[in-house]
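Onboarding guide, step 5: your first structure request.
Type a short instruction followed by the sequence, for example:

Predict the 3D structure of this protein.
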Amino acid sequence: MTYAEMLGRRSEILKRTIGDMIAKDNTKGLGMQESSFLRNMIKELHQNEYELQRNS
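The system replies with structure tokens like these:
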């Protein structure tokens, strides 16, 4: 598995997890710890996308 493939797979997992957390936020709301975790995942996704663009 190349570095770009690994980043792509990681981005897919992050997108799925972020989507699940947003759905939870829309129905039940998130606690402070979950909100912080969601923000960190979004930052990580942006970093991954940047790295993918840079390596392409």
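Each response can be followed by summary notes, for example: The first helix runs from residue 3 to 27.
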